[in-house]
Amino acid sequence: GVKHVLAFGIDHILFMLCIFFNNSNLKYLLRNRILFTIAHSVALLIAISYNFKVSEIIEPLIALTILITAIENIISYQSNKYYYVVVLIFGVIHGLGFAIAFKEIQGNNLFSSVLSFNIGVELAQILILLIAYLLYTRVKGWKNYYLFIVKPINTIIAIFAVYWRWPRTHI
Predict the structure, then answer these.
(1) What is the phi/psi pair of residue 90, to 5°?
(2) How many CB atoms lie within 10 A of CB 105?
(3) Residues 77-86: contacts with CB within 8 Å, 24+ apart?
(4) Residues whose CB falls within 8 Å of the CB of residue 106, separated by 6 or more in sequence, listed in order
(5) Is the pLDDT of residue 157 over 90?
């Protein structure tokens, strides 16, 4: 899980950063990270258990989740009170994406394989958010934090999401 996220999961890193920039409050971050984890874990377990055929549409949908979240951060300084629903839905989409990666590394015992993969993903998420939070504590008092930090970083993330996945869609 750690290897997948840190070595191959730039999409996951970007989505975690988008969640972070939506609201950097630790309580809020913890709630959304847990909701995201539950959603992607359940989707992964169901997809693997029932041998769902995860279609090639999932990768562009993951890029779309990143794009939507980054745009939300660009246009709104205040976090939407229903943002947790978005995190849950997007967690399911990312979980289906994890199912693609998981099939390549799956061991003999489904439960222990899913558990160890998710523990790795969790550790990577915590690392990403911890680094972001430590950097945030250095700049949070800046007068124009939103204008000079949040907006530009989310603009770069949005552009990356479009560029990275657009050629991979068959539209």
Answers:
(1) -70, -30
(2) 12
(3) 77/146, 77/150, 79/22, 79/23, 79/28, 83/22, 83/23, 83/32, 84/31, 84/32, 84/35
(4) 48, 113
(5) yes
d(C-alpha 99, C-alpha 55), whole Å: 11
Q: In terms of DSSP H, where are the helices of the chain?
A: 2-3, 10-22, 26-49, 58-75, 83-105, 110-139, 145, 151-165
Q: What is the C-alpha to C-alpha distance for residues 91 and 69, in angstroms, rounded to an integer?
A: 12
What is the average pLDDT across 112-127?
A: 77
Residue tagged 């988008």 (tokens): 18
pTM greater than 0.85 (yes/no): no
SS3 per residue for 51-96: CCCCCCCHHHHHHHHHHHHHHHHHHCCCCCCCHHHHHHHHHHHHHH
Tens digits of per-residue pLDDT, 134-150? 888 888 778 888 888 88
Question: Which of 140, 160, 159 shows the shortest CA–CA distance to 21?
Answer: 140
Phi/psi zone of residue 106: left (φ > 0), alpha (ψ -120 to 50 degrees), beta?
A: beta
* Amino acid (1-letter code) at residue 20: F
The answer to whether 54 and 99 are in contact (CB under 8 A) is yes
Using the 8-state DSSP alphabet, how is residue 150 labeled? I
